[in-house]
## 1
Amino acid sequence: MMKLVLFAKVLVLCLFIVFTSCTTTKNLIYFKDHNNPIAKEGYILTARKASLIKPYDELYIRVSSYDEKMYNFFNPENLLRSTVNLEYYAYNVNDSGFILYPFIGKLKVGGLSIEQAQDSMQKKLEEMIEKPFVTIKYINKSFTVLGEVYKPGRYLIAKDQLTLLEALGMAGDLTDFGDRQHITLLRSENDTLRYHYFDLQKRDIVESPYYFLKPDDVVYVEPLKTKFWGIKSFPFGLVLTSVTTLITVLVFMKNY
């Protein structure tokens, strides 16, 4: 009888260890603080400041115009289109913040936002082209997602005002082993690497000034200290092995 009691206690202890090493689905839920009164009213997003062009950036530049003379000069083979692209190329910003553009020469763009650079270039072109329209975009801007996501890697920034949630979505979302409460953002600011932390289970993350990503940001998702086991992945084999081992030990003790 004593051996059976001992067996039962040991079995309960093993099962306790197995189950306490799991984590429940509540650890996998986003924005679970729905009772927060501020969350019900809504949050005001803090808009990200425009990125400034820096040395060694690569810029996509497109210039369009309705000027027929300039159109014929740049595109004599196609006289039927009313709007033409005069230039379509990647330009490198040198270490002094300048690009070298045809017919303009050196143009200072370093330290300007994309909109400011477009306005500056458009004013220069107005001296040669009637009603020019300038489009400038980044080519080499990207961010990186590492850790417990389904598709870690480096991703190009295809739009302005990219949010942390959108970045995680591009990486395939967090795995079941990703810690929603410990998301780290690494950002280089004024030649200093700084760390910022997020808890995806709180809705107020959208108010963070770091909610919008910047080029070259790195997002790291920590793994959970314990792992969630679903029905399909429950360690039945481990439990059965433990029970079998205990029975073998008890039988051995009885015979001894």
## 2
Amino acid sequence: MMLSIPLSIHNRSSLLRRALESYLWQSLPPAEWEVLLIDDGSTENLSEAYEAFLGKINLRHVFFDHTRHERFRRRNPAFKRGDPEDWFKTPALTTNAGSYLARAPFVGLFHPEVLHAPDNFRRAVDQLKAKEAYLFGKVWLGDRLMNRWLESHSSWTQGGWEAFLSDSSADRLRAFSPSELYWYCSFLPRRAVQAVGGVDFEYLDGNSYEDCDFRDRIVRKGFPSVFDPLIQGLHMDHSSETEAHRIRDSRWYESERRNELLYRNRDFGLWTGSPANSSADWTARECIVQIVEYGIGSRKCVSVLQGSGILA
């Protein structure tokens, strides 16, 4: 196995189902990659999203509970199930847990709502075999019109990637430039994540900028950022969501400003290379509740692991 794909996810099952269609048409053989769904408290049944793909891909459904983390308990000292949470549901914990569980030497850090061009996985693996780096792809930012096009074209993968971009009029959308290196569609060595101590938990007290900090520390550990315009993806729109933690209200923007100031005030020119999360386990493995595993060739789960002790 060459590539592990930990997907930080909470609901978005319909978008995940479509994204998995783009995984299935990858030119890298399915036996050489795996998907890890790091499921942080989804209320939707994610198994319905991947049920059609069982037996065709390697997949682990990892049930994750962020309320077990010491940072959450610090912010919510008297928390009981059902209480309102003083918490910003960011991908920091789940990204670290997924990278810890990865079995392959290379990791793909994506959002679960990103569609991938057919050669993305193979191209990334080939490049990382030749030179260790942090690869970023060109990503178009979809809108509700694009989502409606996809909903009305269930066979969107049949004509190939270029035909999809043309038929869906993707050229009208904004795409990330070579200077916009976000982990919407990115690949890096697993050991790079370990070397920097994962995503910094300091960003859990707000929203955003944890990916920028993570990227900068990766680069300063000797894994240069590389923008590859031939690694391509399309981020599907999810602006219609109504869950409280996804509403961009005044509190959300205040928390974003908090994280921006944290990031801007860090002097990476003087950074000594010490790993993040020195006072905590960077893996967040204490939040892993259960792992259900499926392999290629069978629609039955091959293992079910439960309890915190199994991962110690």
## 3
Amino acid sequence: MGKVRFPLVGDLYLILVLDDHSRFILSGAFFFRQFKLNVFLVLYRAFMRLGIPQGILSDRGSQFKAHHRYGEADYQWYAKKLGIELIYANRAQTKGKIERLFRFIQRDFVMENLHLTSLEAINEGFQKWVEIYNFYHSNKALDRECAAGEYTPSLRKLTSEELEFILVHEEPRKVLKTGSITYYGQYYKVPDE
């Protein structure tokens, strides 16, 4: 979700994972920045709690899809390692569910919590709000059912260590004059571009 202003904390961004079918919120948190590491942290929490999905729908933002001929975005690489099919929204209507949810969060959560004084308090309050939304909020599109009644967790699971190594492990490296990098003692050629 775009920038949200909490007067006593500052500008924050909400990163959220939503099940497209049931509208069940798998994971979400507010952050000061939209760093890709924050996206992977939210994905890690969702995958640890509820398993690894068969596919993920996203837009074509630079954090989700490489816009050049060579290479791939980190998100694409991680999805491939986890066996997740990447589906990109081609029409604005495809993203309508999450956009409507963002507007609802603005009205129902943000406006009621402008008095909070720390990022921790905001995220703690948001986690409580998510539980209420998932298990008690009736949705018109779901014939007045709550999201939890329609959601089915994935049976594909990894251990915390396996998932953490794939999603959170980061190794700084430099491109050598020979046009290659080293990673754990292995040399890899980098495309000339």
## 4
Amino acid sequence: MLLQNKNAIIYGGAGAIGSAVAHAFAGAGARVFLAGRTLSSLEKVAREIRKTGGAVETKAIDAQKKEEVEAYLYQVVNQHGAIDISFNAVGIGGEHGHALTDMEYESFAEPVSNAIKSQFITATAASRYMKLKRRGVILAITANAGRKPYVDTGGFGVACAATEGFCRQLALEAGQYGIRVVCLRSAGSPDAPGVEEAFNRHAANAGVTREAFEAEFAERTMLKRLPRLPEVANAAVLMAADEASAITAEVINITCGELAD
């Protein structure tokens, strides 16, 4: 198994992306630690993983609070010896559907601030422990809007671009300690509730049906479809595995060819 005997922490573990990656990590042999603000939601995901024989633990913490994150990592390392993988899939909030000129600064800045704060807290905390073992992988997730602007996405694209820039900077600083930092960039998975909500808003603005909006978006991709959650999760497994040991400071294109690098 690609992640056999790895300890993987997933923040936002009850969300659509976090839970999909959790299942994939566990299936690849990792011991999964699900972190998030609502324990009951985390436990639901954990029960599903346990049914398939996966090893999983849960903890209610807020990734925006440094003291909670650091206390949790100390607990994991104390009990299990190391943190091998850290993946932040925490939702960043924000609102789609408005032009920047129609927004208040606070609404625009919300996803930017949320993204950078939780990514900084979780990634730097993990990095400090990984340095001691001189190994580890830190993963983040963004969207195609981090590279290419789209109409009426508010602060979302800026938040994605900021996250990608942060990952590159951390990769430079942490690389000497054997730590890799990789960002996954998706075109948006229609089977994720958050993407569904955004697509509904953009479809309404464009005056088309939700189905027509997705079909037109998919038609712009080289594969003529959009990535599904299991595909994003499988990419996360590949990037977290030792087989990807030469990859760092990279944004992995999971856009089905909507973007070309």
